[in-house]
């Protein structure tokens, strides 16, 4: 997903990867891998112009402040913010042949589909779980999420600089597997746990490339990680494990495309790009390069069960917290509390 350095991710005054001027894609750094949208290149002879971000809230603020793009790639819990802000318009699914093959579990929310239309095209999904150095960390250590609070790893852990992911971890670690109905007591317990975990954190990673660099350099031994950071480490022959079956569980999430209002480019090319992304033949490139699953069930049928398990997206025998849309007010509360925790309060 996010291969660029933090500085490059933040530098969004102009597109970071200029190509076809008639389509600007605002995306997570790393998704510019051609194989994922090869059909678009075959059709138009070039990649779209990409602008990158490293965090969903950062991306929303940029677009709400007037940054112009044609299409963006938020994760599911952000869609309500875009709708409420009037930044997006419904999709014409008649122009997306593979829409009928999108796994229906990704379209269950009225935030995505209602009487006004389809507001969101789910595209990819993955997990957040425990990445660890198998030479310095035992299987017993990572059998529980309390590894993040273990004094043995003080100054040796890394968490994502992402409110959604850290709260998914904190809720799981305190026994909550559904964040759609969190009580004040559950929130307080998770916040207390997260403050304790903060004491062990060497650094909060901004993107998976940074996480893999922290671990690859020996700076940290344990991280709460997406699939792609593990893919990068394995590509460098680093001894990394990916524990999804800790006693308390792990989390899953999915991301997709929104059609931005008043985009400066070609609406036809917006649909060409989405159709290339959802093509079943793109699923293997998505898995190989980033470690994620495709929302298209036809595409996932091309991936063997062994390959899914190796990438960390196979079935597991442990609790799962699904990062589906939750209450916007609760999410803002979590975001504010996370900022306090990072600041040491």
TrEMBL record:
CC per GO annotation: periplasmic space
Protein location: Periplasm
One annotated GO molecular function: polyamine binding
Keywords assigned by UniProt, alphabetized: Periplasm, Signal, Transport
InterPro entries in the cross-refs: Sperm_putr-bd
Coiled coil location: none
Pfam families associated with the record: SBP_bac_6
UniProt-annotated stretches for the region Disordered: 311-333
Main location (coarse class): periplasm
GO annotation, biological process: polyamine transport
Protein name: Polyamine ABC transporter substrate-binding protein
Signal peptide: 1-18
Taxonomic lineage from the root: Bacteria, Pseudomonadati, Pseudomonadota, Alphaproteobacteria, Rhodobacterales
UniProt key word Signal: yes
Keyword RNA-binding (UniProt): no
